[in-house]
Specification:
Layout lengths: L1 E3 L6 E2 L4 E2 L4 E3 L2 E3 L4 E2 L4 E5 L3 E3 L4 E2 L4 E5 L4 E3 L4 E2 L4 E3 L2 E2 L4 E2 L4 E2 L4 E2 L4 E2 L4 E2 L4 E2 L4 E2 L4 E3 L4 E3 L4 H8 L4 H6 L11 H12 L6 E4 L5
Parallel strand pairs: 1-4, 2-5, 3-6, 4-7, 5-8, 6-9, 7-10, 8-11, 9-12, 10-13, 11-14, 12-15, 13-16, 14-17, 15-18, 16-19, 17-20, 18-21, 19-22
Antiparallel strand pairs: 1-24, 22-23
Length: 206
């Protein structure tokens, strides 16, 4: 399904393949010979999404560009099933396995691998040729690659990166307080702009 959002339409190379149940929304460009498979969602949420040539976006992956952080994917990148990418840059020849998660402001260098359920955290810079092992977390700049059990080490790096401020524009709440009412109200108001979206076509089987 191809959707016009905020007056902007997807731009898809004639040689690309988009499965009939994939959703491509807004200011999205998809390069030559790229394949987007069933159930994948690629959405420009206030910021563009640019996908290069000869990429594979597998089933049920979610790719999102945001106002603060655009999403850019280089050539020859494989994005596995159920992967989630938000407002990041992925250079060429990268492998992102099933369930990989890449957060806002992250940068993944050429030829890197993020293996099954690996995470590249907020504002993290993962050097070229790096590997994030199964279930591990890359965090910080320069990136440290840590096992999921190393919560205190991860949090010590992650906390100053200030996820709520970076992603939602809200300061982290004091202990015992919450920003959730303001966060959800603001985010819901922003997302409600999709009410004016217009379906302009289906996916193409070529």
């Amino acid at each position: 399904m191809l959707i016009e959002h905020d007056g902007k339409r997807p731009r898809i190379s004639r040689s690309a393949y988009v499965a009939s149940t994939a959703t491509i929304c807004g200011d999205v460009s998809i390069g030559e010979n790229t394949c987007v498979l069933f159930g994948a969602i690629i959405s420009a949420e206030g910021g563009p999404v640019e996908i290069g040539a000869s990429c594979i976006v597998m089933e049920n992956a979610v790719l999102r560009g945001t106002r603060r952080h655009h999403l850019k994917i280089g050539d020859h990148v494989l994005i596995g099933p159920r992967a989630s990418l938000s407002g990041c840059t992925v250079e060429e020849n990268v492998f992102l396995a099933t369930g990989a998660t890449v957060f806002n402001g992250a940068w993944i260098g050429a030829r890197a691998e993020v293996r099954v359920n690996g995470v590249v955290h907020l504002k993290t810079k993962l050097p070229p040729d790096s590997t994030v092992p199964i279930g591990w977390i890359a965090v910080g700049e320069p990136a440290r690659i840590l096992p999921p059990g190393a919560h205190e080490e991860i949090w010590a790096i992650q906390k100053p990166l200030n996820f709520p401020k970076t992603v939602f524009g809200l300061e982290r709440p004091a202990e015992g307080e919450t920003i959730m009412p303001e966060l959800t109200s603001r985010y819901a108001a922003f997302l409600s702009s999709h009410a004016a979206d217009r379906i302009i076509g289906g996916g193409e089987n070529k």
